[in-house]
Amino acid sequence: DCLTKNSYNESRCQHLIDALYDCCEAFYKKNGDEARTVSCPKPSLLRLKLAQRQKD
Question: This protein's superkingdom (predicted)?
Fold first, then answer.
């Protein structure tokens, strides 16, 4: 796991985090905001995270 190997330093695992968020975005687009999975943040938080990443 990238995060544990890198002492939970997100910057070293950015590509994997971005891929997860892209996958989660597709999941919610397909299944709706009421869908749930333990792998993804809630839709509102996901949208916030995606917006923050676009600014960076």
Answer: Eukaryota
